[in-house]
Design goal:
- By secondary structure, the protein is mainly α.
- It starts with a helix and ends with a helix.
- The chain is elongated.
- About 65% of the residues lie in helices and about 0% in strands.
- It has 2 domains: about 1-115 and about 245-285; about 125-230, no CATH class.
- It is built from 9 helices and 2 strands.
- It is found in: Membrane.
């Protein structure tokens, strides 16, 4: 029985460690896509340490989950009682935290995914803030204050869009400004709500604007021709509604995995304590 529990804990901990590794790799990929290899860029374009910390969110989460998984693997295989209890304690605390977190997120996602964005973009203060910041960014980008760089191909496909805009197609220009974040006049705090959401939305969902679509990508890459003409509110709403249930069931599965591991660790610790007492009584006798 106990050998079976050990194997289950070891297997589950391995899955958790691999999950942490996957999140870590994804975090590194996201960070690379955002700032490339010039990591000093991250600090120059970030208002304070907390916003910088947000950029490392996936990396930090991945490392924490990996440590929890490795503690479980170590605790299931260790024979020395003191080391085993310490590893299992770390694993149990981590498993309990993620059980509560995943359970809460699963319930929230399954219940509210269809109503998370409501029916209309207007009327919600946060959405209106995002939309107003995007309009301000659109006015700054490719203006007299911020000359944007577009390729000749982009210009040929969208000549009417760039009429009256301040742009260059010169490949030899010193600084190629292809997103609003590169503009000298760009202020992080002025576009914080829009920048955090729109860069991901433009890249993943191929949309522009929030309530109203813009003519090109502002926060990711103006020369990307994958734009499908839809607003990001509409695309994000459809994405959340279509994937919400799936995500909810995945989170529920993870919650069950972490919850079972909490129970299995208790069984292992109780068995270990019982064996220690038995050995002690035999020695005393």
């Amino acid at each position: 029985m106990i050998k079976c529990v050990k194997k289950v804990v070891d297997f589950s901990a391995s899955i958790i460690a691999l999950l942490g590794l996957a999140i870590l790799c994804f975090g590194i990929y996201v960070l690379y896509k955002q700032v490339g290899l010039n990591y000093s860029d991250l600090y120059f374009n970030t208002a304070d340490w907390l916003k910088t910390l947000q950029e490392y969110g996936f990396i930090i989460l991945g490392i924490v989950i990996m440590i929890i998984g490795m503690a479980g693997i170590d605790g299931a295989s260790k024979k020395k009682r003191s080391c085993r209890k310490f590893s299992l304690l770390i694993y149990q605390i981590g498993a309990l935290i993620f059980f509560i977190l995943c359970s809460s997120l699963a319930v929230f996602t399954l219940v509210y995914s269809n109503d998370a964005f409501g029916k209309e973009c207007t009327g919600t203060p946060y959405f209106e803030t995002i939309d107003s910041q995007i309009k301000l960014a659109d006015q700054l980008f490719c203006s007299n204050q911020c000359q944007c760089y577009i390729t000749q191909e982009t210009f040929d496909h969208n000549q009417s869009v760039f009429a009256g805009k301040n742009y260059t197609t010169d490949k030899n220009v010193i600084e190629k400004i292809e997103q609003i974040q590169k503009c000298p006049q760009y202020e992080v705090d002025s576009y914080a709500a829009a920048a955090q959401m729109m860069q991901a939305a433009e890249t993943i969902l191929h949309c522009t604007g929030w309530c109203t679509p813009t003519s090109y990508y502002i926060f990711s890459d103006i020369n990307d021709d994958s734009y499908d003409g839809q607003s990001c509110f509409k695309e994000t709403k459809e994405f959340v509604e279509s994937t919400g249930k799936i995500l909810g069931y995945v989170l529920l599965g993870l919650a069950l995995l972490f919850g079972l591991n909490v129970l299995f660790v208790i069984l292992l610790c109780c068995q270990s304590e019982r064996k220690h007492r038995t050995d002690y009584l035999m020695y005393e006798t």
